[in-house]
Amino acid sequence: MKVTTEELERCQVMVTVEIDSKKEKDLLQKAAKRIAREIKIPGFRPGKAPYNVVVRRFGLEAIQQEALEKSADDMIQKALEEADVTPFARMDLESVEWDPLVIKIKVPTEPKVELEDYRAIRLDFDEIEVADEDVDERLKQLQENNATWTPVERPAQLNDSITLAVVEKIDDEIVAEHDSLDYELKPVEDEEPTDNLEAEVEVEADAVEEETGEAEEETSEADEAYKPPFRPDLTTPLLGLSAGEEKVFSITYPEDFNDQDYAGKEVVFDVKIAAVKEKTLAPIDDDLAKTVSDFETLDDLKADIRANIKSQREQEQNNELGNQALEQIIEEADLEWPLAYEDESIERELDNYERQVSRYGLSLDSYLSLENKTRDDFIEESRERIISRLKRSFVIRKIAEQENLKVGESEILQHAKFLSDLSGQGDRLWRDILSSPVQQELIANDLLVGKVIDWLAAVAKGETPEPEAPILADQPEDASTPPASDGQVTPEQVEANINEEAVEAESSEATTSNDEAAAPERESSTPERDQDVDQTEEPTPAGVKS
C-alpha cells in the first residue's frame, strides 16, 4: 500500500491510497466469495462459485462495491496512521479508481491558530472598594431573611402577612380554590414574581420561553421587545382586612396574558382572612451574627461580608477584563479551520432547533415559514453565530495549551459535588454526573474557560499569572479519584478532597443572601450550550462521507 499526502486550502489534506495489483485482486476475490456465500447461485454450493461466474452474474461493479464496503475503512485507517494525519471533522471520499485501486480522501485537519503577543495586553480598571452602605445592605437582607411573624388583632397593613382562603371564579365557574395561603402585602411595584398571590394560587402559569435563537439578537432589540409580565394588584384590595373578615373583588386580565384561561377575562376573588401577622425584625447585633453565621460578633460578620462582596466584585471585574482581552486577542488572531467542521457545527445547530421547536408541535420548516424565512436563510444566520463561536473556542483552547492551563479530575469531581449540592438534588444529580462522560466534559469545559478568563484578567491588570500546578497523570488512588471497582462514588469520598480554601468560601457565603452570595456566572460556555470551547469530540477516522 502506497500512501501520499497533498496539502490543500482551509486546513485539508488530500490522502491518496494506492493498492498494488496483487492486493486488489485478493480484495475482489474475497468480495466475490462473500457474495456467492450470501446469494445462491444455481449449480454451486454457497461460496463455491468461481470468481468469473460471480462477475458474469452480478457484474464487476457490484463486486468492487462489496470490496470497498468491507475493506475501505480499514485501509483508510491504516493509511492515516502511516501518513500521521488525524481527522478533525468528517472526511470526504473524493474518488475511487480501479486497476490499480486508488482511493483519494479529503481529510479536515487541526485548525491553524496564530496569536499575537497577548501577554502584552493591558486594560484600564478601577480598584475594588466596598462601602459601609454595601455591608449594611447585606446585613438588612440577613435581618429580613430571619424575620419572625407575630399574629396581631388589627387590620392588615403594608408589609404584613395574611393567611387566607381564596376561591377564584370566571363567569361563576370556579377555576381555582385554596383553603389556606400566606401572602405578604408588599407594595405593587416592589412585588417579585415569586412573592405574589397568583404564584401561590397558580393563577399565573410560567411563561414559556421559546428556545428559538432569540438570545442571539442584538441586546438593544431585545430590550425594546421586552414587556414586563402583567401582575394583578392583589395587595390593594386586601389592605385593611382583619382576621375573620371576607371580601369579594375582581381583576380583569389583559388579552395578551400568558395563561389563556385568564387572558381577557374578569376574575372574581372571594377571600376570607384567617389571620393577620406582623413582621418582627431582630436587631442587627452580636445575637443576629450568631444566628446567621458561625461568628460570635457583629464586627466579625461585617468583616466577612465585606470580604465576600470584594471577592464577588473582583470576580465580576475579572470576567469583564478577561473577556475584553479575549475579544482583542480574537480580533488580532490569524485563524483558519476546515469548512467541514464549520458545516458539522451548523448541522448540530439545526438538530438543536429541530428538537426545540418540536416541543411545541412544530417542524423546523413550519417554524421558519412563520418567521418568513427559508432553511437557507437560517443556515446563513447560523453560520455567522457558529463562526464567532468557533473563533472563541479555538483561541481559548490555544491559550490553554500554550499556558498549560488544564482541568484535573479532582477539580471536575469537586465542581460536580458543588453543583449537586447547589441544585438541592444531592446524591441523585451527583450520580447522574458521574455516570455521564458528556456531563463531566461540560463541567471540564466550564472550568477550563474560567481558568483562561481569569488568567487573561491577570495579564490585563499587569499581574504575573501564577503558573499552573502540574496535574500528575499517575497518582495513587485516593479520595480525589473515583474508585475503579464499580464506578459508584459517594459524595463523602469527594468531600474529603475539597480544599480548605473552598470550604471557607462556602462557609462565608452562608452569611450572605442566596442571590448575592453566589459568584457571578462567567461569560463562558452558556450561549447555547455549544460552549466557547466546542464540545464536539474530535472525530475518529472511522466515518467517511461519500
Quick overview of this protein structure:
With 546 residues, the chain is of the alpha+beta class. It has 18 helices and twelve strands.
Keywords:
single chain, 546 residues, alpha+beta, 5-stranded mixed β-sheet, 5-stranded antiparallel β-sheet, 18 helices, 12 strands, elongated
Structural classification: alpha+beta
- The number of helical elements comes to 18
Beta-strand percentage range: 15-25%
Please state the oligomeric state of the protein chains shown: single chain
Q: Mean of residue pLDDT?
A: 81
Portion of residues in helices? Answer: 40-55%
Strand order of the biggest β-sheet: 1-2-4-3-12
- Order of H and E elements: EEHHHEEEHEEEHHHEEHHEHHHHHHHHHE
Radius of gyration: 33 Å
**How many β-strand runs?**
12
Residue stretches low in confidence (pLDDT < 50, at least 5 long) are: 191-223, 471-546
The outline comes out as elongated
Biggest sheet features: 5 strands, mixed
Descriptive account of the structure:
The structure is a single chain. The chain is α+β, with helices and mostly antiparallel strands and 546 residues long. It is built from 18 helices and 12 strands.
Strands, helices and their partners?
Layout: E1 2-8, E2 12-19, H1 21-38, H2 51-58, H3 60-83, E3 91-97, E4 101-108, E5 112-114, H4 132-145, E6 148-151, E7 161-170, E8 173-184, H5 197-200, H6 219-225, H7 235-238, E9 246-252, E10 266-280, H8 286-292, H9 298-332, E11 334-336, H10 339-358, H11 364-370, H12 375-402, H13 409-423, H14 426-434, H15 437-460, H16 491-495, H17 500-509, H18 514-517, E12 544-545
Parallel strand pairs: 3-12
Antiparallel strand pairs: 1-2, 2-4, 3-4, 5-11, 6-10, 7-8, 7-10, 9-10
